[in-house]
Every structure is written in C-alpha cells, then in structure tokens.
Design a protein that fits this description.
The complex is a heterodimer. By secondary structure, chain A is α/β, with parallel strands linked by helices. Chain A has helices at 8-17, 25-34, 107-120, 144-148, 168-172, 200-206, 226-239, 255-262, 284-289, 294-307, 325-334, 343-348, 371-374, 383-408, 426-432, and strands spanning 39-40, 54-56, 78-80, 89-91, 95-97, 123-125, 134-135, 141-142, 154-159, 176-180, 191-193, 214-216, 246-250, 269-273, 282-283, 315-319, 338-341, 421-423. Classes of the chains: A alpha/beta, B mainly beta.
Chain lengths: 450, 225
C-alpha cells in the first residue's frame, strides 16, 4: 500500500480553497436542510458589466467646448407625454423615484418619497400595491400619496398584473399610469407580498383580508396580446380624460421586441428595469440569473423606439443600479431620457443594507409594517427627515449630471449621446455599442449600423 | 345623440363613433341624470368604462372590456358581450342577457355581474370581492387565484375550478370537469343557501340553491405558507 505524498494535503487543500462551490457552500446546505429556495431583498450581487465599465469623454479644444457650470445653465428638464396628453409631466430632473410598493415599504417611506418628489420637481411611483390613503373621520378617502407630491411633483401609479387597489379614483388621482409587465429583480415572475406584511392598513389599501398573501401573476390575466394591450391603454386614456401620460414598464427581457411592440400601443413612455434592479422579496435564483445588465438594455430600447418611429414622442426611463450622477449621465448618453432610482433612494432614506426587507423587520422603518420599527424612519424624526434626505440626494445627483453634461460641452441633458462615452472593457464595448477607449472604434463592426 | 320622447332617456347610435366619442356622450348624459340607450356598439371596446353612476342599456351586442372599472353604474346588454366584461369593477351592476366571452369579471372588487347565457373560460380570475352569476355554463379555470367574492355557475363548469384560490366561494349548480390546486368541495351552509336564494330571487334565476356544489380553498396560504 503506497503512502500519501507529503505535498498531497497542501495541493488538495489549495484546490478546495479555490473551488467555485466554496462561496455557495452555505446556500447548498440551506437548500438541503429546508427544501426551499432562497427569497431575499435588494438586487443582483456580484459583478456584471455596469456603468463603471464606461467613462465619459470631456470636451477640450475640439467642439463642443465645455460649458461653465457655475455661470452657464444646463437644462436638466424632462417632459413625459409632451406630444400626446393634456397634462404632461414636466420634470426638473432626469432623476425619478422608482416604483416601490406600499406594503413592501412603509407608509412613512412612501410619503417621504412623495414629499421629496414635490421638493425636487420630479415623479415618484406607487408601485403595484395601491396608493397610500387616509380615511378621514367622515369616511371620505384622501389620496395622501398623491397630495404629498403637490404642487411641484408628480405621482405615477402602477397598473400591474395583480391590480391591487386599482380603481377609477386611483387612476384619476395620479399624474401618469404605468402598465407594469416586469421588474429587474424577478422578470417574468410577477410580484409577491407575504401575508406577514399584509396588516390592516395594507389590507385596506389592497382590498383584501388581513394576512392574505398577495400574488401578482406573471402576466396580466386580461391582457394576453398586443391587440389587448392597445385596447387597455386606449381605455385607460379614456377613463382619465386623455389627460395623463400612459406607459409600459418591462423587466430586462427581449428588450428590442418588447419595446418595439409597446411602441405600437400609443404610449407616452416606456420604463425598463435592468439586472441591478432591487426588490423587497424575490427568489435569489431569479435575482442572480434571470435578466440582462442595465447597460445592455438601454441601446436596444433606444433602437426599438427609433425603429418604431416614436423616439421623439416616447420617453425612455431606465432603472437598475443607479448610484450617482455619473451613472445617470452614462445612461442618458447610452440613449435613456431619464433614470428611476429605488435602492439608492432607500439608502438615502436610511437603509443600512441589513437584509431584513423580506421579513419586514427593517430596523430603519423602510421595508416594514411594524408600528414600532416604523417609528425609526428618518432616524426617528419621521417623514420630513426622510423626505429631506431623499430630496438632498436627488438635488445632488441632478447637480452631478448637470456638471458632467457641462464638462462634455452640453447645455442640455438632451444633448447626451453615445459619442460621449468610451468603454474601458471589451465586454462593455461589445454589449452596448460604445467605442473602446484607446481603440476609438467599435469592437464589433455591427454597431456601426445602429 | 338624440333625446327621446321620454325626457329622461338619451339614444346614442354608436355605429360611426369612437370609444372617446361614445363614452363622452354617455358621461354627459349620466351627469344630467339621463338614462342611456345605445345601439350599434359592438365595435367599441371599453364601453361605459369607469362610470360611477347611471343606467346604460345596450341594444344588441357589446365589445370587449365592457364596463371596465365600473364604480356604480348599471349596464344592461340585450345581446352578447366580448371578453373581459366588468373587468376590475368595484361596484354597480352589469347584466348581460346573452353570452359573454373570456375572462368575465376578472380582478373585480365589488358589484354584480349577471350573465343569463353562457360564459367562456377564466370567469372571475383574481376576483377580489364581486359577485358573478352565470345562468348558463362556464368554461375552464374559473376563479383562478381568487381572493374574495362569489362565483355562481348555474350550469356546468369546465376544468380546474378554483385553481390556486385563496379566499371566496365558487358555487356550481351542474357538474364540473375538475377541481384546481388548493380547491375542495364542501357542504353548503344555511348562509350559503340564503345567499343564493336571495340572489336568484333578485335576478330571476330559476335554480334550486340546495343542488349547488360549493368550492372553497383548501389552504389560506397555498403559495408561501
């Protein structure tokens, strides 16, 4: 019987330490011991091609010359629904507050978002759980979330596959309507809210019994074709008096086809959520494996709108992984008109990334319905403090976008274009059709034709 | 739009009108407290959507999404209706004397839909609190994902009755092909019989409540519990 070589243990130990199973050992054991898959909050964890793989090209001697940001104004306004509706959204910034549902998040957080929208002249979004309401002593219902956005902000309401709280009053007490097909963290899976978070207040808003699990199906039960989407959008326009922009939101799927098809439906905007898009509760395997990177979806969506001949009338809003003005500027240069932020807004409002969102035990009062935990919102100072943090953050990001635009030589964010960017990785260059830094050309010749 | 001899009634011929035109005329008439009689409206999808009050009588057939998001109007159709009638309704009544297509009363929180003929597949999917009565037969997958309300099928129903239902009740007077996941048949209670009797009496449905099968959810938390 041969003896074990003295180096064997060292070699094998080194190999084990570098195995790809090492990082997922606990996850495999969790599945083995519970028979369950993992549900968690927040978004993709790991490294995907992202905005960090792109850099912006500053103006120098060659035209255009830089704009002096301290004395020359950069136009950061965005209009949604400009050509079609009686009351378009006239935003002061390309930074929007993305859809986060009431139920997944607290009343205090939702109202802080609404108030921050007012303070910054931007739009916030109800998400798919209905609107934060207040029932007055006389029984009258006040559309509180909508009211908090006024006079300077806007409230988009979602018309999602679960249709929670969607009534004629919900649509009328809004500024825009978003037909939601999917989101970045779980595209193709609809939505989930566990019964633990369905308190009396949430149950009232969603019109269901307390403790009921809320499942938004993977697809709209009453919109099964493009023709039906056209009909529904037409009806939504009709019931709100042809006043408000109507759009569609997708997860990062077959982006070109999805957007091209939506563009046939007489929409004012399309929103697409990328792979870094967050969630209150989603299956980990979906978050990590299903969907495409944010930087990959923007050129495809932009191209689809151009090919459909509606690029000037349909606003492209992109979501998923925005952290600062640099990310927003890069998205605009890739072809977006605006960016909607969710995770960063939560962090601005106090989120510490504790990972308790799914369980509703958020210690800072954002992703919880627990009355005691909700008292911690805004550092214990409530809605006004949360709104101030969020509005400060949006103001700062907007200034960053304006300064970047100026340094590139743009007097308006509408002037951003793909020539403003260079990729610093071959992958990013290939994925989003941006010239490779140094090479000053596309790494894939196909992009020359788009 | 013509005011009829009866001063309280408006007649609308929708033949050459768009959704926008027809619904605007309906809203105008309803705001004046007038009853609306419509004809030639089968090409209009979304007819009488989002109304809070009023009485609309449709002579002949109606298109898809009739009375979508209804919030209090009474809509009577003398003929047949397309898909998704009373979609997302909150209150009011929709009475169809003929048959309806796919997806009747989906998502509806409240109000009543009565269909005197047959209904297609997907009646009352994700129903949240409305009452649906089909005097004839219904197709497959009725009550899928329903979280409240009552679906009453006087005739037969198809496959997967109550699939993944969480709350609410389904009553079938005839036979059904199969139950869905998380659905079970249970005994009628006296409250059920009273409820059915009252509804049948109110809407002139000739059926014996005692002969109905009642289908309810097995578990209140079939997805995550």
């Amino acid at each position: 019987m041969s003896s074990i070589h003295p180096l064997y243990a060292k070699i094998s130990s080194k190999r084990y330490s570098e195995t790809p199973y090492k990082d997922v050992w606990e996850e495999i054991r969790y599945r083995a011991e519970t028979g369950k898959y993992i549900i968690r909050g927040f978004g993709y964890s790991g490294r995907l091609p992202h905005f960090d793989d792109l850099l912006l090209v500053p103006a120098q001697l060659a035209e255009p010359v830089p704009v002096d940001t301290y004395r020359e104004k950069v136009d950061t306004t965005v209009v949604i629904g400009g050509g079609m509706v009686k009351k378009p959204l006239k935003l002061h910034t390309p930074v929007l507050i993305a859809a986060m549902s009431y139920g997944a998040t607290s009343r205090e957080f939702k109202l802080a978002c609404a108030k921050a929208a007012n303070m910054t002249g931007t739009a916030t979004n109800t998400g798919e759980g209905g609107m934060v309401l207040t029932v007055k002593d006389n029984g009258e219902i006040e559309y509180t979330e909508y009211e908090y956005t006024k006079p300077n902000g806007y409230l988009m309401v979602q018309f999602a596959s679960g249709r929670w709280g969607v009534s004629i009053d919900y649509l009328l007490n809004s500024d825009a309507i978003e037909v939601k097909y999917g989101q970045g963290a779980k595209p193709g899976m609809g939505g989930h809210l566990l019964g633990e978070k369905v308190t009396e207040e949430i149950a009232k808003t969603r019109g269901i019994p307390v403790g009921t699990d809320c499942l938004s199906p993977a697809r709209h039960m009453d919109i099964r074709s493009l023709d039906e989407l056209k009909k529904v959008i037409k009806i939504i326009r009709d019931v709100v008096g042809y006043e408000k922009p109507v759009g569609v939101k997708f997860g990062p799927g077959r982006v070109y086809k999805d957007v091209y098809m939506a563009a046939q439906c007489d929409i004012d905007f399309v929103a697409i959520d990328g792979k870094y898009g967050g969630t209150g509760a989603s299956p980990d395997h979906s978050i990590q494996n299903v969907g495409l990177p944010t930087i990959a979806i923007i050129p495809a969506a932009d191209r689809a709108l151009r090919d459909a001949g509606v690029r000037d009338s349909v606003t492209l809003i992109v979501l998923g992984g925005f952290r600062h003005g640099g990310d927003v500027a890069k998205a605009l240069a890739l072809g977006a008109d605006a960016a909607a932020l969710a995770s960063a807004i939560e962090i601005a409002a106090g989120c510490t990334l504790c990972g308790q969102c799914t369980l509703g035990r958020c210690a800072v009062g954002i992703c919880t319905q627990d009355p005691n935990l909700r008292k911690n919102f805004g550092g214990g100072k409530g809605i006004d403090q949360g709104a101030l943090w969020i509005s400060n953050y949006i103001h700062a990001v907007n200034k960053e976008v304006a300064q970047i635009a100026a340094s590139i030589g743009h007097k308006s964010i509408k002037e951003f274009n793909r020539e403003d960017l260079r990729a610093i990785t071959i992958e990013a260059s290939a994925i989003c059709g941006v010239k490779l830094a140094g090479l000053e050309d596309y790494v894939l010749p196909q992009w020359k034709y788009f | 739009m013509t005011l009829s001899a009866e001063a309280s009634k408006v007649e609308i011929d929708a033949l050459k009108l768009s959704l926008e035109d027809v619904n605007a005329k309906i809203r105008e008439a309803v705001a004046k407290g007038l009853k609306v009689h419509l004809r030639n409206a089968c090409h209009i999808h979304g007819l009488a959507a989002g109304l809070r009050s009023g009485e609309i009588i449709v002579e002949g057939d109606a298109g898809d999404y009739l009375a979508m998001l209804n919030s209090g109007a009474k809509v009577i159709v003398e003929g047949n209706v397309g898909d998704y009638v009373a979609d997302g309704a909150w209150s009011g009544e929709v009475i169809v004397k003929g048959c309806v297509g796919y997806g009747a009363c989906m998502y509806a929180y409240g109000g009543v839909l009565v269909v005197y003929g047959d209904a297609g597949d997907a009646v009352g999917q994700i129903l949240k609190g409305a009452t649906v009565i089909v005097n004839g037969c219904a197709g497959d997958s009725i009550g899928l994902y329903m979280v409240g309300g009552d679906i009453i099928i006087v005739g037969d129903a198809g496959k997967l009755v109550g699939d993944w239902m969480i709350r609410g009740c389904i009553y079938v007077g005839g036979n059904y092909d199969s139950l869905g996941n998380n659905a079970k048949e249970t005994e009628l209670t006296s409250e059920d019989v009273n409820k059915l009797s009252n509804l049948f009496s109110k809407y002139d449905v000739k059926a014996d409540p005692l002969k109905f099968k009642k289908i309810v959810p097995v578990s209140l938390r079939p997805f995550y519990g």
